[in-house]
Amino acid sequence: MKKIVSLATLCTMLILNAYAQDSIPVSRNKYIQFDAGIGYLRTNMSSVNASLKPLGYHAIRDNYTTASFSTAYFYNRFLFRGEASLILPHSINQPDNMKTTFGGYSVAAGIGYVVMQTPRSRLYPYVAIQGFSTRLKFTDRTPVKDMNELISTSRRNSSIQFSNASIDAGIQFERMITLKNNQWDCPQNNKYMTIGFRLGYNWSPGTVKARYNGALITGAPEYNFQGPYLKVMIGLGKKIRNMKWN
């Protein structure tokens, strides 16, 4: 009888030990994050300026301010992000009562991988494909005396557009600040905010000729959405931790 009890006890312990080895808790961290940023963009306007120079126009600058908004999803160390950015317009008064204004926007979708992560910071490179649309506007600033002259006088207002795709590659560093959860929040789901910066480069495979009302025109300038950029980002996010047994 004692042998039977001892054997049963041994078998039970072996079964429990095998179950404990197979049932290992695995943590899968997910992050949902919303970022807003303001930055500096340097782009190449040399071809556009070359086409405007014979008209006696002043050069359009290469440096612009950008504003962006992005939504990011982290699964452990993998990043999936969508972003929309504005190239804030800049105007220059030109000869013969004319004004030029250059600006535009871009929309991007990208992936990344977190190479360094601590409870308070993380660093990750990323790459994205983005579509851009920029526009050069010409505005007639000729003064008028009254409403009659305003209506009867023809204006030299027009715009040309550059649209194509480019590759955006860079690296982002974030400082993570834990926020206090509400009393009814799940303790595994932590809220946080981020402050960081992003350094990257836009690369376009080729130049784009300007279009007027969607059509190519003779002698139109070319433009290349290419150059470095820097952004300062601030964001809000939520960490969702899943515990699963394997």
At the fold tier of CATH, the topology name is Porin
Going by CATH, the architecture would be Beta Barrel
Level of helix content? 10-25%
- Integer count of domains: 1
Global Rg: 29 Å
On the 0 to 100 scale, the average pLDDT is 85
The number of helical elements comes to 3
N- to C-terminal distance: 37 Å
The string of secondary-structure elements, in order, is HEHEEEEEHEEEEEEE
Strand order of the largest sheet: 1-2-3-4-6-7-8-13
Give me the secondary-structure category.
Answer: mainly beta
CATH class: Mainly Beta
**How many strands, which pairing sense, and closed or not: the largest β-sheet?**
8 strands, antiparallel, barrel
What does this structure look like?
Helices cover 14% and strands 61% of the residues. Strand 2 and strand 3 form a beta hairpin. The protein is elongated, with a radius of gyration of 29 Å. It has one domain (2-245): Beta Barrel (Porin), CATH 2.40.160. The protein is mainly beta. It has helices spanning 2-22, 46-52, 147-152, and strands at residues 25-42, 63-75, 78-94, 98-113, 116-118, 121-140, 158-178, 189-203, 208-209, 211-212, 215-216, 222-223, 227-245. An 8-stranded antiparallel beta barrel has the order 1-2-3-4-6-7-8-13. It has a two-stranded antiparallel sheet with strand order 9-12. Strands 10-11 form a two-stranded antiparallel ribbon. It contains 3 helices and 13 strands, in the order αβαβββββαβββββββ.
